[in-house]
Write a structure and sequence with these properties.
This protein is of the alpha/beta class and 259 residues long. It has helices at 4-7, 20-30, 33-40, 43-46, 54-71, 81-91, 107-122, 139-155, 161-166, 203-210, and strands at residues 12-13, 77-78, 168-176, 182-189, 191-194, 214-220, 227-238, 244-247.
């Protein structure tokens, strides 16, 4: 006999009419172990400030669907009727009401929406403090403090338990070819897009191709005040605990990729 404990949580979601894109997104998101544990312990609901808001309704609908998913064991599946009733209530009249049409949709778009809604449902203003610098002349410490300050500024008014689980930080360095001046900026992200190509198609290889240096011409340099060519390079400074990687569906000319 199969080990019931080993099969725990191996449960599917019924397709109720071209809803496989949503099923795939839900299954992906619910396999973020820390967030699923947080939800199943009832802790996510305690983070909600406004239970009547649409994001809170989405969170509740998500909780209602993952509880039976984790309670059952294979072979089994659940009917997501209540979840789609919630979807109809919250997206009607919004830019997302196309989800109500029973046609194939983009799983990436639905995953982004689902993550955003749960993030907004649980976000709150938080107080963060930074310790005093140990060595103000250390360039590595200076850069690290820049990164931490950017992270705090991005989330201090909208911090959610999902912040550390699903958001990363990118360092962007711009170098002026005229005066060699370098400037740094920091960008948060919750998903990375890649595409297979020539050469190394491992995840690391695709990420390296995606983050190759970019040349921008006729750029106004803040240092030399001239219109110059700059080189823009980016690198991952901080990875989230759960990284969503998306394969690009379309080529530069708009044609669809077939993977």
């Amino acid at each position: 006999m199969a080990d019931v404990k080993q099969d725990k949580g191996v449960v599917g979601i019924a397709n109720v009419g071209n809803t496989c894109y949503a099923n795939a997104a839900i299954q992906l998101f619910r396999h973020c172990p820390e967030w699923s544990s947080f939800c199943l312990q009832g802790l996510a609901e305690k983070e909600v400030s406004d239970p009547s808001s649409n994001p809170a309704k989405v969170l509740k609908g998500y909780l209602d669907i993952i509880k039976p998913l984790w309670a059952g064991a294979k072979p089994a599946y659940i009917q997501p009727g209540g979840f789609w009733q919630m979807i109809q209530e919250v997206v009607t009249g919004t830019i997302y009401d196309d989800f109500l049409r029973r046609i194939p949709h983009d799983a990436h778009e639905f995953l982004t929406w689902l993550l955003d809604q749960q993030f907004m449902a649980t976000q709150k203003e938080r107080n963060f403090t930074m310790s005093e610098p140990k060595n103000v002349n250390d360039p590595q410490e200076t850069m690290a403090r820049e990164a931490v300050k950017s992270w705090i500024d991005s989330f201090k008014k909208t911090y959610s338990p999902l912040t550390d689980l699903c958001f990363g930080l990118m360092r962007v360095t711009s170098t002026c070819k005229g005066c060699s001046n370098q400037t740094r900026s920091w960008e948060t992200f919750n998903m990375l897009k890649v595409q297979p190509g020539e050469g190394d198609n491992t995840l690391q290889g695709m990420l390296r191709r995606e983050m190759q240096d970019e040349t921008i011409e006729d750029f106004q340099c803040e240092n030399c005040k001239n219109r110059c060519t700059i080189t823009r390079s980016q690198s991952i400074w901080r990875l989230p605990r759960n990284l969503f990687v998306v394969l690009k569906r379309f080529n530069a000319n708009g044609s669809k990729r077939n993977y």
